[in-house]
Amino acid sequence: MADIQGTPTVVVDGVHITYTVHGGHPGGRGSATAALGRMLRRGRTAPAGRRVHAVKGVSFAAYRGEAIGLIGSNGSGKSTLLKAIAGLQPVERGQVYTHGRPALLGVNAALMGDLTGERNVVLGGLAMGMSRAEVRERYDGIVEFSGINEKDDAISRPMRTYSSGMGARLRFSIAAARSHDVLLIDEALSTGDARFRRRSQRRIDELRAEAGTVFLVSHSNSTITETCERALWLEAGTLRMDGPAKEVVAAYEEFTATASKAGTARTAGTKAE
């Protein structure tokens, strides 16, 4: 359980995040690229793009020992908020305070596709703050935990030959090989099989016991309720609910069910007309 009387590991105070989306021409990517090329050839500047207000005044505090799930519809700002906590996404207004160095683990975390899994374990471990000696010491455990060598010697093949699930398992294994003050996991658990998810959940429990804080973004509500005691529900960039994971997930599922019924009714009405 979290030590709610202790010092927070993360404080998000009235954070607003915006970014610019370029492109999106109705004629498709090719026509947009061609139009941009014509503008550049004529010495004109490209369009400024569309501003997206992804996170709108979000505030909360996280404490040591907590595992916190982030849920919400696609485009609700979950991954953007994780990047801001990790220091990878600037905020327009508000502040993000963290204790120690947050580590962001995402399915698309940057490992080198042309390098072998073995080499990526070394590079990933160094990027996570391990020394070369620590990487050597933990190498066998990382590979064994990932399970990617169970059928063949996949660790010696280039990462680009891996399935998305294999790559995600290796990324999680690298990140979870050491303790973190704050570990941010973006969809990594949803790509493995049931056995790997159980291993991952046990490891998250161990990281929490080692006085860290874990944030987990997942579209699997069962993963959130099984792994986390607390959940934050983001919707359209705002914090809609913060509380016990089971209660927040239940409210979110009721919201999505109602929205789905409303959408079905509108579609039926349109067809009837």
From TrEMBL:
Return the protein name.
ABC transporter ATP-binding protein
What UniProt keywords apply to this chain's record, in alphabetical order? ATP-binding, Nucleotide-binding, Transport
Cellular component (GO) terms are:
membrane
PROSITE patterns according to UniProt: ABC_TRANSPORTER_2
At the top level, the lineage of the source is Bacteria
Q: Which InterPro entries match?
A: AAA+_ATPase, ABC_transporter-like_ATP-bd, ABC_transpr_TagH-like, Bact_Polysacc_Export_ATP-bd, P-loop_NTPase
An annotated Gene Ontology molecular function = ATP binding
Q: What family does this chain come from, according to its entry?
A: Belongs to the ABC transporter superfamily.
What is the species listed in this Swiss-Prot or TrEMBL entry?
Streptomyces gardneri
Chain ranges of the ABC transporter domain: 40-261
